[in-house]
Request: fold
Amino acid sequence: MKKILSISSEIEAFRIKEILEDNKVPHLIRSFHDSAYDGIFQNQYGWGVLEADESDEARILDLVKEL
Reply:
């Protein structure tokens, strides 16, 4: 798994997830929220990231670009 792009909000994560699932692209959306630290990592690193296989990177970027 490789970090493909940064995600800035939960809404953006939901839309990206929806598009990738519709196109059957395997992926992982990882939030930096940690309830133990009350979300401090999201303030430092952003909401989260999209991770996927490197071979799917171009396809994912094309799909997200259309978004």
